[in-house]
Amino acid sequence: MNDENVLLVHNYDHDGISIVAAQGDVDLSTQETLRKALESSCTEQNAPHKVAVDMREVPFIDSAGLALLVEIRKRFGHKCQLALIIAARSQPERVLKLGRFDTFLEVCYSPDELSGPVASSSAFAPPAQ
């Protein structure tokens, strides 16, 4: 098996926030693995909640991975506030900041920096079309 096309994910809880930790590249060939994990985390609770993607061990994300983050936010934004945990000075940090993802998603550098399980009810409003 070619390790370049493998994305490992596992879930854990941090102070009431569901974390989906990814390890490996998030691209067209691996994004389905992350999609399934995020869909599961976003639908596991009926009440509004926060789900964070821990991308500190993701060295690369392409447009398919970015599109997935936008799609998950649009589909589940009414009940699931998406946040990102990234590594400083990484390719994902550069791409996410260039794409201004930090203007519509909470972006931080460690789980301890997350704002809490639910920031506010307005965070769950669907994005403007």
Per CATH, the architecture is: 2-Layer Sandwich
Using only CA atoms, what is the Rg?
A: 14 Å
Counting structural domains, the number is 1
Beta-strand percent range: 15-25%
**What coarse outline follows from CA principal-axis ratios?**
globular
Number of strands: 5
Helix and strand content put the structural class at alpha/beta
Give the termini distance in whole angstroms: 41 Å
Series of H and E elements: EEHEHEHE
Q: Could you give me the name of the CATH homologous superfamily? A: STAS domain
Query: Order of strands across the widest beta sheet?
Result: 1-2-3-4-5
Q: What's the CATH class, please?
A: Alpha Beta
Low-confidence stretches: 120-129
Mean pLDDT: 89
Helix content: 25-40%
CATH-assigned fold name: Transcription Regulator spoIIAA
Count of alpha and pi helical runs? 3
For the largest beta-sheet, the strand count, sense and barrel status come to:
5 strands, mixed
